[in-house]
C-alpha cells in the first residue's frame, strides 16, 4: 500500500513538472520570434577576435559581448593576436574557423589583409561582423564602430565650451593613420566653422607615446604661452600632455581633452588634471555585434541571410557613437 | 488516512511546481542581462509613428517592430498622420506623448519641424528613435535608415551587370528631394568611375507619378533608340517605365531597375518586365528601433541613458542596408 502511494505521488509530481514546463515554453512553438526562441542552444559558441589583445581598450567591447551572451544564453570566447602582427591575427582566425563557431566578431588589424580569411569563414556558413576597425573589401555582414570625424567634432564642441569659445588650441595626433586624421579634421573644421575666436595653432605627432606628448606640450606652452587647450586624438598622449601642464603649474590654464578611457586618463579626470575625454561606444560594439551574429546564426532576419544575391539581413554600417567623460560621470567609465 | 495521503500528494506537487519555476526564472535574479529580464512588463507599450500612414512602404517597418515586440513580450501601437501634413504629425505625436508610452519610433515628415516635439518626449523621459527619415536637430537617441548614396551605387552595379557593362542609361528621379538626389549621385558617380563604356544620357523628374514616368521613358526611347537601361529612384515610377517598354515591345532591350517593393513592382519583376528593384532595410528599421527603445526604457545600456552630459547609450546612426530584388528572390518580398 505505501509503495503504491509513493508511486502515485511520484507520478502526479512528474506530471505537474511536465505540465508547468510545457505551459512555460510551449505556448508559441511555431513562432520564431517568441522569446523562448531567442535563447541559444547548448554548445552555441561565439568568438571575439582582436589584436594587441591584452590592451585595456578591448575590455568594454568584451563586456558588451558578454552581456549579450548572458541575455541570449550562449557561450563566448575571447581570442586575438597578442602582438600588432597581421600574420598572427590571420592564423588565429583560421584556427577559430576550423572549430566552426556559431559566429565571429573581429576587429581587423588592417583594412586589406584580413578580407580573404573573413570570406573563408562566411563561405563556411559562419556569420562574421566587424567592430572598431573595418575591412571594407570583405563579405562580413556589418561594421560597428566610431565615426571618427564626428568624434573630433564633438571634441571641438567640448573644447569650445571649456575655453569659453576663444583662444589658441593645439592637436596632438598620429600622422598618417586614417582614423586619427579624421578626428583631427573633424576637430579643426568644427573650430573653423563654429568658433571664430578660436585658432588651431599646431597639429603635432606624438607617435602614440605619452612621453613624446609631454615634451610636445611643454614646447607648445613655451612657444604659445597663452595656449588654452590641447586635444589629443590617441589613448595615451592625454596623460602626457596633462603631466606637462601639471609640472609647469599650468593645469588651471590648459584644458586637455583626451581620447578613450584608459585608467590613467580617468584618474586624471577625477583629480582635475584632464578636463574631458572622448569615450567610444565600445560596449555597444560588443553588445550589438553578438546580437547580429545570433540573429544571423538562427536565421531570424528579413530578408534571410540565406537569400540569393545582394541582401543586408542586418544593418551594414553602425556608428556606435561617443560619450564625453567628465568629472561628473567619470566613475561610470572604470572597467567593471 | 486517505485524506492525509491526498494532502501529501498536493503538498509535494505544489513544492515541485514551485521548485521548477524557481529553477527556471530565479537563477540570476540580480543580473539585468539574464534573458528573463529582457522581457517587458504588463502594459509596456511602444508606438511607431509615420506619415502617409496608409502606404505600402511602412508595412515591412511595422513587421520588424511587431517581431521585436513578440521577442521582448511588449505591446505596440501603430499611429501616424494619414496625409502628408506636418501639422497633423505633430498633433499625433503630442497625443502620444500625453499617454506616456515606453518609447516612440518616428519617421519625421520633414527634418526641421518635428525636433521640438521630439525633444518634449525626451524631456518627459520617453525614449525616441528616428527611422527612415531623420530629424537631425532633435535629441532622439538614434537614426536608422538607408544610406541613399550607397543605394544608388548598388543600383549602378546591378545595372552594369544587366547591360553587360556598356551602353546608354537614364535616371528618372524626383528633383530637389535630398534622398533622391543622393541616389542619383551615387548611381551617376559609380557609372562614371567603374563603367567607362556606359553613359548616363538623361536625368528626368517624374514627380512621383507612374504616368509621367511612362511618358518620359517613351520619349527617352524615341530620342535614344539604343537606350539599355533606366534607373528609377522612387517607388512608383519603375512600373511606369516598364509599362512604356512593354507597350513599345522593348522589354527585352530596356532594363528597368526600380526602387522599393510595391506590389506592382514585384509583380513586374516576376513577369520579367522589371529587371530588379532596390529594397530598403525596412524590417531592420522597425526591428532594431524597438530593440533600442526597449534597452533605453529598461536602462540596460553602458553608458546608461541617464548618465550626465553627452552620452550615446545606443548606436547613433545606423545604415540599415539594401537588398536587390530579382526574379530569383522576389517571392520573399511580398508583404506577409
From TrEMBL, chains A, B:
<feature type="domain" description="Periplasmic binding protein">
    <location>
        <begin position="50"/>
        <end position="294"/>
    </location>
</feature>
<dbReference type="InterPro" id="IPR028082">
    <property type="entry name" value="Peripla_BP_I"/>
</dbReference>
<keyword id="KW-0732">Signal</keyword>
<dbReference type="Pfam" id="PF13407">
    <property type="entry name" value="Peripla_BP_4"/>
</dbReference>
<dbReference type="InterPro" id="IPR025997">
    <property type="entry name" value="SBP_2_dom"/>
</dbReference>
<protein>
    <submittedName>
        <fullName>Sugar ABC transporter substrate-binding protein</fullName>
    </submittedName>
</protein>
<comment type="similarity">
    <text>Belongs to the bacterial solute-binding protein 2 family.</text>
</comment>
